[in-house]
Specification:
The chain is α/β, with parallel strands linked by helices. It has one domain (about 10-240): Rossmann fold (3-Layer(aba) Sandwich), CATH 3.40.50.720. It contains nine helices and nine strands. The chain has helices spanning about 15-30, 40-50, 65-80, 100-130, 150-170, 210-215, 220-235, 245-260, 275-285, and strands at about 10, 30-35, 55-60, 85, 135-140, 175-180, 185, 220, 235-240. Strands 3-2-1-4-5-6-9 form a seven-stranded parallel sheet, sandwiched between helices. The protein has a two-stranded parallel sheet with strand order 7-8. α3 runs parallel beside α4. The termini are far apart.
Length: about 290
């Protein structure tokens, strides 16, 4: 028996890549794992590998009705959930000048809408049942400032994930935490993440350069171990690749220099701080 025996963890996108590694890491630490994937057969294969306490579930996380039902079904099956990894995601896409609205909807539908729906569904259940829990969304080093040509929609989706999580941590009640997992290059099949769609892009699984690059990435088990440890500690940002620091630092320098040159901070600046203005308006309305 381990300290986590009996605890339940849910992983979306759990049948491959980082998701599969997360399932294996969690099972190794004693968690009962719900493996969720758009491919039920692949989820079943991973659940069988993990053992009798693991279960397989099929879900397109971009489907709000199905995702809400999934959360309820898993909750009732295990009589509660302790940890949720909203990890399902798809990658790259075409360069922005060649991308299509359909491609935008596909990438944002899974990476952003799906992430939000999963967190919302399980957080509501935790609140309803007065249960503490931990949520983790899979962002990317792209969330922190890294970018490269050809991955504009993917990068934008990962910024959106960080933005939603940043607000959500102010809205969640005490006892429910959220983390943003921001890995860099990982050795997975992520280049093939469009295998369940009808989209045809320049950055799909047929790209030999993408495949070769992913093969040189950090082992998925290493990033999964870091993710689980970070969530258990309650970290908001979980990073794994030291090389990601360079882009994040550049992003901060750009922000810092912009404020220094254009709108330097002084105590007087706080009169426009939204939270302060809101408090003032509410006080005025209450006294009127």
């Amino acid at each position: 028996m381990t300290e986590n025996s009996g605890k339940v963890a849910v992983v979306t996108g759990g049948a491959s890549g980082i998701g599969k590694a997360l399932c294996e890491e969690l099972a190794g630490k004693g968690y009962r794992v719900a493996v969720v994937d758009i491919s039920h057969s692949e989820a079943q294969a991973i659940a069988r590998q993990l053992g009798k306490t693991a279960t397989a579930w099929q879900c397109d996380v971009a489907d709000s009705t199905r995702t809400a039902a999934l959360a309820t079904d898993i909750w009732h099956h295990y009589h509660g959930v302790d940890m949720v990894f909203s990890n399902a995601g798809v990658g790259a896409g075409n360069p922005l000048l060649k991308a299509t609205p359909e491609e935008f909807d596909f990438i944002f539908g899974i990476n952003v809408r799906g992430m939000w729906l999963v967190c919302q569904a399980f957080a509501k259940l935790m609140i309803e049942h007065q249960r503490q829990g931990k949520l983790c969304v899979t962002g990317s080093e792209h969330s922190l400032g890294f970018q490269h040509a050809g991955a504009g929609l993917y990068t934008a989706s990962k910024h959106a994930i960080l933005g939603i999580a940043d607000v959500l941590r102010t809205e969640l009640p005490e006892g429910i935490s959220i983390s943003v997992f921001c890995p860099g290059l990982v050795n997975t099949r992520f280049y093939d993440s469009k295998r369940h769609s009808n989209l045809n892009t320049e950055a799909d699984g047929g790209n030999p350069v993408a495949k070769a690059m992913m093969n040189k990435g950090m082992p998925a088990r290493e990033v999964a171990e870091a993710a689980v440890k970070g969530v258990e500690r309650g970290e908001f940002l979980i990073v794994t690749h030291g090389c990601s620091y360079t882009a994040a630092a550049k992003r901060w320098r750009d922000i810092d220099s912009a404020f220094a040159a254009q709108a330097p901070y002084t105590p007087e600046s706080d009169r426009y701080l939204v939270n302060n203005v809101m408090k003032q308006v509410l006080q005025e309305m209450k006294s009127s």
